Amino acid sequence: MTIDKSLTRKISGAYQSTHSQLVRFFRNRLGNSNDADDLSQDVFTLWLNRKAEDPVKESRAYLFKIASNVLIDHWRRNQQQNQSATSIDDVAHEHSFEQTAADPSEILEHQQRITQLSEAIDLLPPRRREAFLLYRFDGLSQSEIAERMEISISMVEKHIAAALVHCKKYLEDQGNNK
Predict the structure, then answer these.
(1) Hey, which of 67, 72, 94, 152 has its CA 20 to 30 A from 28?
(2) How many CB atoms neighbour CB 54 within 10 A?
C-alpha cells in the first residue's frame, strides 16, 4: 500500500509547524496540558477525516478554525457531564435501545469498517502501532506514552500522526475497492 507522498509531506509539515501553537492555544484556554495535547491531536484527526474534495489552501488557518470548534465541543461535553449525573445502568439501557433500533445494513457497514480499521492498525510497524493504541484506545497522554515507550514526546506525536495518515489512506483504499 502506498501513501500519497505530497499529502504526507503537507500534513507532516503542518503538524510540525502548527502543533506546538495549537497546544499553547488549548493550554491557555483550558489550563490543562494533557487536555491541550489530546485536543491538539484531535484537530489533526478531524483534518485527516474531512470529506471535502477541495484542498486546504491555508492549513494553519484551517487548523485553528477546527481547533476553535474542538474547544467549543470540549466545553459543551464538560458542561453536559457536569449537568447530568447519568448512571451506568441508564447509559447501558440507552445503548441497547439504540442497537435494536439501528438498521441492520448500518450495523453491518459499521462492523466492516471496524474490521478494516483493525486490519489497517495491524499493518502498522510495531512501535507506531503501540503508540497509536496507547493513545487512542488506552487513553494515555502523549507524555505518558513517551515515558512508557522511552521515546520523546515529539516521536510519539510523529508515530500517532503517521498512524492516522496510514489508517485514513487504508480505509479510503478499501472504500474504493468495493
Answers:
(1) 152
(2) 6
Q: Domains for the chain: give ranges and CATH numbers.
A: 1-83 (no CATH), 103-177 (1.10.10.10)
Distance CA 56, CA 107 (A): 33
Distance from C-alpha of 19 to C-alpha of 22, rounded to nearest angstrom: 5
DSSP secondary structure of 23-73: HHHHHHHH--HHHHHHHHHHHHHHHHT---SSPPS-HHHHHHHHHHHHHHH
- Tens of pLDDT, residue by residue over 16-55, are 888 888 888 888 888 777 788 888 888 888 877 776 666 6
Using a cut of 0.70, tell me whether the model's pTM lies above it. no
pLDDT attached to residue 93: 52
Q: Which three cell numbers stand for residue 154?
A: 515529539
Task: Give long-range contacts, CB 8 A cutoff, 24+ apart: 29-38.
Answer: 29/71, 30/71, 30/74, 33/143, 34/141, 34/143, 35/74, 37/141, 37/142, 37/143, 38/141, 38/142
Residues 129, 29: Cα–Cα separation, whole Å: 31
What is the average pLDDT across 57-77?
Answer: 81
